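Hello Y.,

Per our agreement to keep a running log of every chain we model this quarter, I'm adding this entry. I've kept the format consistent with earlier entries: sequence first, then predicted structure.
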Amino acid sequence: MGLSPLPIPPHYQPQQVAQVWPVPYQQRSQQAQAWGNQHNISPAAEDALTIGLLLIDVQNTFCIPEFELFVGGRSGQGAVEDNRRLCEFIYQNLGHITQILATLDTHTATQIFHPVFWVNPRGEHPAPMTEISAADMEQGTWRVNPTVAAVAPKGAAWLQDYAVHYVKTLDSDSKYPLIIWPYHAMVGGIGHALVSSVEEACLFHTFARSSQTHFEQKGSNPLTENYSVLRPEVQADHNGQAIASPNSAFLQRLLSLDRLIVAGQAQSHCVAWTVDDLLTDLQTHRPDFIQQIYLLEDCTSAVVAPGADFTAQASRAFEKFAAAGMHCVRSTEPMATWAGMASM
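Predicted structure for the entry above:
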């Protein structure tokens, strides 16, 4: 079959994208298989050209307005609008997407970017969106909360030394300084789950194409941030000992595909830095693959919060990716019109 879009199944309700609700798994599985038969959708294993759809952190915590880190963008409804388009893109391209791969930001309470990890001289925790720099630690503005030392087997003194090293490392060569985020994407909680409408679309794809969605967790290491699914922000402690490592297995999974489409949240953070890490690796090892990556620019939004608008940073990142050879495309454009997307 060609790359022409399919109709959107009648069960899809765009007004539900901003809500959390239980997906009727059994009913959707039966409908998806019937839909596949009706529209002559072949199993993904038969694809001559394998196309992956990478969904970065399309979770309630980032995508539902009342949740902790809703990515509203400048419109105020960014992630909701993005996910409406994303669901429609999945349904319209069911027969062409070989596999969906979804990353899940995965946290517990006691992590280096959460308030409980830090205290000031009065024993108070930093408010969400506080930035902590090396200068703050040198001046005693913030220090590690001694009650969280259990996250580091080497004890409280080691953890304090490590924290100084951590913020200095971020200050010198990272994308952003240490930002204290609200508790979010807490494993086992509702915020950790995929957006219901997106979960439903992924499930529908699974049964229509006999292709299991792959889920990749990131961000559970208490000692480092992990904006990118491919690389933690800090990989070694102040003694040069490894505390984390790049996710080479997932990188190889992505590179096993012929084409890769990317969407998700937030454009200024986890999307930008996953794609940036991917680009860095490809420039060295697989430059031919750079032109096989398509960024759905209308299915991602930048973090915009009081006193913090990262839209410009997100735009610069996408300009960099396009200059390197990646394709910035829109979900509403037929895939057949995308540059370099072979016909099937």
